[in-house]
Specification:
Blueprint lengths: L21 E2 L3 E3 L6 H8 L19 H14 L5 E3 L3 H8 L16 H4 L31 E7 L8 E2 L10 E4 L15 E4 L8 E2 L3 E3 L4
Parallel strand pairs: 1-5, 4-8
Antiparallel strand pairs: 2-9, 3-9, 4-6, 6-7
Length: 216
C-alpha cells in the first residue's frame, strides 16, 4: 500500500509514504459507484447536481449522508448482510486489482484514458458508471468519475506491517480515493489520497459500497 514503484517519482505526495504491507480479510466491493437510481430507490431523493441518465453516479454526497444511506439500505435488507463503506486499505487493494493485480499506475491500465473520466476527457461532467474499461477484478471507475468516500479518518501511514487497518480513531477529515472528472490524471492513481470534511458534499464526490463476508 502506498506509492509503489509504478506510481513514479514525481507524482506521489508525501502522504502516500511509506510504502507498507497490509493484510486484509475477505470482503466484497461493488462493481460500480452508487448510481442516482439506487440512491433514489433507497432515500426517495437525489442530492446530485449533475442530472441526466439514472446510471450516473450519485454526487454531492457528504460522508454523513452516506452513513444515513447505508443505514437505511441495511434496514431495507433486514440486516441480513453488513453493507458499509470500504476502508482505505480495502479500497486501494480493490483498485490495484486485488490478487489479480498487473501492477498498473491507474485502476486497470497505465493509460488513464482507457479507465478514467478525468478533467481532460470528461467534458466537464460525470458519466454513466461502467462506460470505461474495468480493472483486473471487473471493477469500474475506481480511477476517475467521482472521488469515493472511505470509512477512515485521514492519518499518516506507518511502515509497520498491518492487518485490517481502519485509520485513526478520530479526526477532522475523511479519506476520499480515486480522483474525479474535475481533477487531472495524476489524482486518479491507485495510491493517491485525498480528504475533506465529512460535512461537505460537492459534485465530484460519491461513494462505492462494500460488504463484510457473512459468517457461516
Amino acid at each position: 500500500m502506498g506509492a509503489t514503484e509504478e506510481q513514479g517519482e514525481e507524482d506521489p505526495d508525501g502522504n502516500e509514504y511509506p510504502v507498507h504491507v497490509v493484510n486484509l480479510s475477505s470482503y466484497y466491493i461493488c462493481q460500480t459507484e452508487v448510481t442516482q437510481e439506487l440512491w433514489y430507490a433507497v432515500m426517495s431523493s437525489n442530492p446530485s447536481r449533475i442530472l441526466g441518465e439514472t446510471t450516473l453516479p450519485v454526487d454531492c454526497v457528504k460522508w454523513d449522508m452516506s452513513q444515513e444511506f447505508i443505514g437505511t439500505l441495511n434496514e431495507i435488507l433486514d440486516h441480513e448482510v453488513e453493507i458499509r463503506m470500504p476502508t482505505e486499505a480495502e479500497w486501494e487493494f480493490a483498485a490495484r486489482g486485488g490478487n489479480k493485480s498487473s501492477g498498473y499506475k491507474y485502476s486497470g491500465s497505465d493509460n488513464p484514458d482507457e479507465v478514467a473520466w478525468v478533467e481532460s476527457n470528461s467534458g466537464g461532467k460525470t458519466h454513466p458508471v461502467g462506460t470505461k474499461r474495468p480493472n483486473e477484478l471487473g471493477l469500474y471507475d475506481m480511477s476517475g468519475n467521482l472521488w469515493e468516500w472511505c470509512q477512515d479518518w485521514t492519518g499518516h501511514y506507518s511502515s509497520a506491517e498491518q492487518t485490517n487497518p481502519s485509520g485513526p480513531e478520530e479526526g477532522n477529515h475523511r479519506i476520499m480515493r480515486g480522483g474525479s472528472w474535475t481533477y487531472s490524471q495524476t489524482f486518479c492513481r491507485v495510491s493517491r489520497r485525498n480528504y475533506i470534511s465529512n460535512t461537505i458534499g460537492v459534485s465530484n464526490c460519491g461513494l462505492r459500497l462494500a460488504m463484510t463476508v457473512p459468517q457461516r
